[in-house]
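Researcher: Here's a chain I'd like modeled. Treat it as a single chain, no partners, no ligands.
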Amino acid sequence: MCHILNEKIPICRTCQNEMRPKFIKLKAEGHNATSIYDYNPFIKKLIYQYKGCYDYELNKAFISMFAKEIKLRYSGYVVIPVPSYKKEDEERGFNHVVEIYKNLGLTMLEILEKTEKHKQAISTVNSRHKVYKYLALSAHPDLRKKKVLLVDDVYTTGSTIKSAINLVEKLNPKRIEVLVIAKTKPKQTNTN
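Model: Modeled as a single isolated chain. Structure tokens:
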């Protein structure tokens, strides 16, 4: 059905099969959240190629197969992307989260900013929880009658999303939901 509804999918059928979309439901600070994929090895590699190797053409690969369905589901929502550090965006030449989700054609407000470079991928669990120190509101639009969709690429511990939710809640939106490309699986701890 996805192939009938969507015009052009930028990756081959073999790669699409490797992605394995699951639309996993979860909660973030009491708000509904959805992860399109598990953070499986293929998705991890694809995100790295896109974000880390600056392969801009992959921006449509993550959601184009169901962009119309997602747009319909979140019709009337304002999209607020979780930011990356501005200097990293400048080096990369684009903001990877913005470029993925702008393909939905929904109104986007870039009102969050990352005030310092803080690499989540190499952080310990404890330092990930301190991400709130590095996020701030860069604008204060009137969201009182708006439904907000917070978007990000990878949900690991949820610290970044929780910090973003706490900031956006200050603007009193009517509703907040979260959509991420992939969610990592919790690390198994050895109890022996």
